Amino acid sequence: MHNNDQKHFRTPQARASFAARTVQRIGAVAALGIASFFASPFVAPAHAAGHYVPGVEGIQAASVPGPGMYFLGYAVNYNINRLTQAPGSNEGSVNALALRGAWITQATFLGANYGVEAIVPMTSKSFTFNGIGYSGSGRGVGDVYVSPLVLGWHGAQWDLSFGLGQWLNVGTFSATDPTSPGNGYSSTMLSFGGTYYPDAAKLWSVSVLMRAEKNYSQRETGITPGDGLVVEWGVARHITPTTQLGLVGYYQGQISNDSGNGASPMRPHKAAVGVQFDWLIPSEKLFLKVAGYTEYAAGGGSTKGNLIRLALVKAF
What we know:
Blueprint: H1 3-7, H2 12-26, E1 68-83, E2 90-109, E3 112-129, E4 134-141, E5 144-154, E6 158-168, E7 187-196, E8 204-215, E9 228-240, E10 243-254, E11 269-281, E12 286-299, E13 303-315
Antiparallel strand pairs: 1-2, 1-13, 2-3, 3-4, 3-5, 5-6, 6-7, 7-8, 8-9, 9-10, 10-11, 11-12, 12-13
């Protein structure tokens, strides 16, 4: 760290200000959300401003399944080993469980299957940020996501998806507590992506999913977090008809500045790569997905660490 960076943390006021801004970046670990129903037959790391956190999608991330009712459960463990732009030793962990319900209908719109969904996240967080003088833990229900518009198109060797939804400011939030389960503001999220199958048998798949969040004012601080962008990708091959293995990754960055009195000038960003394994159990209409990521780049005040994710999908 440069000497100029260290000067920002020499006073208690500066450390308190940084701690409050950190809530906006780390609090979204609790969100564990999904933009829309973008996992095939099927949300986390601290982030740029917004609720959505990457690492919960990967293989065929931009493919919407066929009509039906779906229940999904996500379990995530994120271990922080660094807080960028902060001095000293900073570490922590986040354990999250997200419950998600989705309904993909028989109705079509613009040639796509139409659906809706909702997500309720719950988290347990523990942080020791010596560089900003914070140590604590907390748990609770985070901000809830609702989407009245999920669209999925399907071609012979491609899928496309689009989603629009709202993160509701319903989780408990405190500007001085990085373990708050809520973010203290609402967000509108737009998602778009595609999956391509290079071979006619669809043994291989290449998928990219993008999400953009428009964030609104945080009532407790008066600060409006900058808008965020997430790109998740996956390249995979079927090992057997019911299993597949692939390389996955994500990039997340804040694409506009925070605004308001005391807003941070930093734009958090990070990137990760990992491996995912999927297992379909046709007799039970059950899908299991497990993935591990390591963040190889981070900056602008974001955290850096490793993520393990387990997802269970049940079709009805």
